[in-house]
Write a structure and sequence with these properties.
Blueprint: E1 10-16, H1 23-30, E2 36-42, H2 48-54, E3 58-62, H3 68-81, E4 86-89, H4 101-109, E5 114-118, E6 125-127, H5 131-148, E7 160-163, H6 184-194, E8 199-203, E9 205-207, H7 221-235
Parallel strand pairs: 1-2, 1-4, 2-3, 5-8, 6-9
Antiparallel strand pairs: 4-7, 5-7
Helix pairs in contact: 5-7, 6-7
Length: 239
């Protein structure tokens, strides 16, 4: 089995909502590269739980859909309680390439605290990405860079690695209810940058389905959700 060569415990955190037919493949492809695969079944009404469990993942079940942020937060809480050193959130719908986990983890081993995957820097790759998605992800990254006063090429990419002990920083509060949906990931990224954690972007691959919906985000309402952490933190409305 191929694992990272560092003496650090690595956990993959996979939020999943109605990912039957995909989640089993994601789990099996991820297992060789981490010490544990944790799937958070966020209130699915299909066979996501059983498929993830039978494929080798530890599965936490939310009885109702709480949102991607709440699911990732449950995963981080589990990581803290079970002494994992590195958290790797990745997509439950097979958009990410688990083989690239080793690349992310290797940079943690070099002293970085937060490693953001980017499909847009040199070496990154996008496959079957809709034009509208290209435009919106680029626009969001531009807006993020303005608000954080730090250039970033792919702020909306959920494939990343970070040291679990960042969560012990009292200036980072992931447990706020307003972070339950799509707010948590940009909140954490913004905090990592503004609090001067050692940060880097590394090239990764993002693959989109030709036949099924490539995102569960709802226009307008979820666009605001992913944007408002930047506004709230920049203006000091939230901490």
């Amino acid at each position: 089995m191929q694992r990272n060569d560092k003496k650090l415990k690595v956990i993959a955190i996979i939020p999943a909502y109605n990912e039957e037919g995909k989640i089993g493949s994601v789990v099996k492809k991820t297992i060789p590269y981490v010490d544990r695969v944790l799937v958070i079944d966020d209130g699915s009404n299909d066979n996501t739980y059983n498929e993830a469990n039978s494929s080798g993942a530890v599965v936490i079940k939310h009885m109702e859909n709480r949102g991607a942020g709440a699911a990732i937060r449950s995963g981080i809480k589990y990581a803290v309680q079970n002494n994992f050193d590195i958290c790797i959130p990745l997509s439950g719908d097979d958009q990410d390439n688990p083989k690239e986990i080793q690349k992310l983890v290797s940079h943690i081993g070099k002293g970085y605290d937060f490693v953001q995957g980017s499909r847009y820097i040199r070496g990154g790759k996008i496959i079957d990405m809709p034009l509208f998605r290209k435009i919106t992800t680029r626009l969001f990254s531009f807006f993020f860079s303005l608000m954080a006063l730090h250039p970033i090429s792919d702020a909306s990419n959920g494939f990343k690695a970070f040291k679990t002990n960042m969560i012990n920083d009292k200036r980072i509060n992931l447990w706020q209810d307003w972070l339950n949906r799509y707010e948590l990931e940009p909140y954490l990224l913004y905090k990592a940058i503004k609090l001067n954690y050692k940060f880097i972007e590394v090239p990764v691959t993002k693959r989109y389905s030709k036949t099924k919906g490539y995102t569960k985000m709802k226009p307008i309402i979820d666009w605001w959700r992913i944007t408002k952490p930047l506004v709230y933190l920049r203006l000091g409305i939230k901490k």
